[in-house]
Amino acid sequence: MKILKYILIIILFINGDLVFSQIAKISADTTLGCDSLVVTFNDLSTITQPDSTLWEWIFGDGTAPYYEQSSNYSKTLRHAYKTAGSYFASLILENINSRGLVYSDTITIIVSQTPSAFFQCFDTNIDSIKNLVAPAQNGNGPYVNKWIINSIDTMYGTELKWKFKNNSVDTVLLRVNEVNPPGCSNELSKKISIENLVVPNVFTPDGDGINDLFLVQTNGTTVYALNIYSRNGVLVYKSVSPTVVWDGMLQSGIKASSGTYFYTIESVDGVIHQDVHGFVVLIGVDK
User: Fold this and answer.
1) pLDDT band for position 100 (50/70/90)?
2) CATH of domain 2-112
3) Looking at the DSSP assignment, which residues form a beta bridge with residue 286?
4) Topology of domain 202-282, per CATH?
5) Mean pLDDT of all residues in the chain?
6) pLDDT tens, 177-199?
7) Domain span(s) for CATH 2.60.40.10 in the chain
8) Which fold has domain 120-193?
9) How distant, in Å, are the alpha carbons of 63, 107, 113, 118, 173 from that of 185?
10) Whole-prediction pTM value?
11) Strand partners, 101
């Protein structure tokens, strides 16, 4: 027994008695979260020879390792994981005076993809009814789509048909939630207005003061983009204003010829309105 003790003392002396007491150990404030997850790592290692120790942090996401060699080494380190995936974060301790003795500890970080919050609004064949559609998600899921209308009515599903009030502005909130942990979520809010635009189908800009304007009846507050096209599809007039009107003059400043023109009326104020398009006949006095 005494012989074994002597041999052990010699081995410890050769490799450095204090080296064997070093232990690499790390912890993290979180190991599960959504993309753009910021993790705070804590170094809980037992270090007996800090001046002879090289710290190497490897975050597992392809970013460059972080190195440190000082008695004032960092006990806490923060790192951001920008994309979804599973990552192995490691701390490697190397004693540079002891023939490359290495100690390490690893933690698995799981980052889930934040769902996209987006939906489209389509007209239906029924007045004031819109079809709201949320596209499929690219993540692992499963996900739940929650629709909230004016902070009151709540429905679920990827598609929603809803009858909106005429001449009012309704707020639609889509909230997408991941069912399983970490429960990543996202949301999008849009305003939808059903405004009954009264659009004439003929006007006579001949200067007699009667029906001289292509004038669309609106609420006077919503901003619309009006585009007028010739029968050949050439844009001949455009305006952006709460007042939707055309006096029969071209962008060039000359009078438009009599004929049939195609118009589009689209809202540009960030509120989803009922976009209108059609034909109008201009009856004027051609030279």
Assistant:
1) low
2) 2.60.40.10
3) none
4) Immunoglobulin-like (2.60.40)
5) 85
6) 999 999 999 999 988 887 778 89
7) 2-112
8) Immunoglobulin-like (2.60.40)
9) 26, 25, 9, 12, 13
10) 0.66
11) 95
Query: How far, in Å, CA of 255 to CA of 251, rounded?
Result: 9
The string of pLDDT tens digits covering residues 228-287 is 999 999 999 999 999 999 999 999 889 999 999 999 998 887 777 777 899 999 998 765
Angstrom CA distances, 7 to 12, 97, 109, stand at: 9, 22, 43
Can you tell me the distance from the alpha carbon of 34 to that of 32, in angstroms, rounded to the nearest whole number?
A: 7
CB 96 within 8 A of CB 78: no
Instruction: Name the residue with higher pLDDT: 124 or 89.
Output: 89
Which amino acid, one-letter code, is at 227? Answer: N
The answer to whether the CB of 177 falls within 8 A of the CB of 185 is: yes
Give the integer Cα–Cα distance in Å for 243 and 265. 11
Could you give the CA distance from residue 165 to residue 273 in angstroms, rounded to a whole number?
12
How do residues 106-119 score in pLDDT, each as one tens digit? 999 999 999 999 99
Query: Residue holding tokens 């004038």?
Result: 215
Half-sphere exposure in the Cβ direction for 89 (13 Å, CA): 28
Task: Report the pLDDT value the prediction gives residue 135, as an integer from 0 to 100.
Answer: 85
